[in-house]
Structures are given as C-alpha cells and as structure tokens.
Specification:
With about 250 residues, the chain is of the alpha/beta class. The chain is about 35% helix and about 10% strand.
C-alpha cells in the first residue's frame, strides 16, 4: 500500500500493526558518470520490489529525497540538509506516524550519510516514547542486511558499497542505463584504510577529486540485477521479521 495514493479514511482503517516503511535517500553528486538522484532511484527500485512482495501487508511512505550530504557539497548540484535539521526532519516523520497510531516504523536508508542521523532519530524517538512498550522503531541501510552480494557472485570485485562504484553503477545500468555516462573510463579509487576501525571525519574530496569511490569500470547490468535481487530479498526478509513480531518482545 502506498500512503500517497490512499485517502485518509483508508489510512485510518488500517491495522496499527501494519509496518510503515519510510524510504530515505539523497540527491547528491555521483562522480562524472552518474546522475545526482542515483541513491533515490536505487532505493526506489528496491522498495518497489519489496512492495510487490507484500502489496497488502505494508504501508510505504513517499521517498524522502533530501538527505544529509554535506560531505559532497564541494560538488555542484548536491542538495543537503544540515545534520541536526535532518535528524529533526526524521523525528517529525516518526512523530507523525506515531500520532496516527502506527506502532511499527522502519526507516529504510539508501545513502551512507544518513546512517548516523537516522540511527540517532530512532534512538531519540524511543526516549520520547519511553512509556510505550508496543513501539518498534527501526533503522537500517539496505546494503547492510544479509550476507552481501559478493558472497553469491564472485565476479563482483567490491566487497562493500562505495560511491558511484561497481555496485551502484551496475544497478543504474540495470535500471536507467540512459543516465549512465562513461563509466568504463573511470579510474580505480580504492576505499583505503584510514585509521580503521576508528571512524574518521572526512569530505569526499579528501578521498576522491572526481567524486566516485570504488571500481565503476567493472560495472555490468547483469551485476546490477544480481545486486537488486540480493538487496530486495534481504530487505523483504527483514520486513517479514517485523510482520512476525509479537508486539512486545525484545527479540525479532
């Protein structure tokens, strides 16, 4: 069920145990060869596939395209929300849906920069509603679930998500190939190891002058379909766990 296509009485008649998926993504630079709405397009396709699997069991809100992308602001076209403002925006979305009575709220993320504020938003929401034992407030990023696509496709060189990389470029070749530029001529820019396992503050230009990170020249549409299928399966399985939740327990 798509929230934006329903009337308010129809929304009001839904079971309040219906999981609500809130997709959050970004509009930001994706190197020389990819469009700025890459994250939003990719997450949108994964949500579409998951919705097809559970057409009458989940409620999906419109995709939130504005994300926390300040580390990309040196590249023209990037649109970004201040981190604290973005956190408050997510908090308001959660508050809205809780006010409407929904108890199972899932922030589904498609952009790395949303990770910290997204997790903080659900953490703070739980504190605001600390008298409630029936709320399930979750945040996840779609590529963080499951075994990872490289485990079932040895042709993938990357073992983790980059930026406008082998993974994202492959998915865009599968989804919107007409929007992909000269990815074959893109240089290799490895992730590197900058003081891991610590988290370092960084700007994209600290790591890449052209904007991508990874190996986009290795992308293919076939890899893209494998990635979409893997991530959609992982997200769908995660949603099933939410559907199976008994409403009060810690385990899920």
């Amino acid at each position: 069920m798509l929230l934006q296509e329903m009337s308010w009485p129809a929304i009001g008649a839904l079971s309040k145990d219906t999981p609500v998926i809130i997709p959050i993504a970004a509009v930001e630079q994706h190197g020389h060869h990819m469009p700025l709405d890459t994250d939003s397009q990719l997450l949108g396709e994964i949500v579409r596939r998951v919705h097809h699997r559970y057409p009458d069991s989940i409620l999906v809100t419109p995709l939130m395209w504005l994300g926390n992308s300040h580390h990309h602001l040196d590249f023209p076209g990037t649109l970004s929300c201040e981190p604290r403002t973005y956190l408050d925006l997510l908090a308001s979305l959660l508050d809205n849906l809780i006010a409407h009575g929904f108890r199972r709220l899932l922030l589904l993320n498609g952009h790395g920069g949303n990770d910290v504020p997204g997790k903080q938003a659900v953490f703070e929401a739980r504190q605001r509603y600390r008298d409630r034992d029936d709320l399930l407030l979750l945040f996840t990023t779609y590529w963080s679930l499951g075994r990872g696509p490289a485990a079932t496709m040895p042709e993938l060189r990357q073992q983790e998500m980059g930026h406008a990389c082998e993974w994202e470029t492959s998915m865009m070749l599968r989804l919107s190939p007409h929007l992909v530029g000269d990815y074959r001529g893109a240089a290799e820019i490895p992730h590197g190891n900058s003081f891991l396992p610590a988290t370092r503050g960084w700007l994209t230009q600290d790591r890449s002058q052209v904007g991508h990170i990874g190996f986009p020249h290795l992308a293919t549409a076939e890899k893209g379909e494998h990635l979409f299928a893997t991530f959609s399966q992982d997200v769908g399985d995660w949603v099933q766990r939410v559907l199976n939740w008994d409403g009060t327990s810690w385990e899920g």
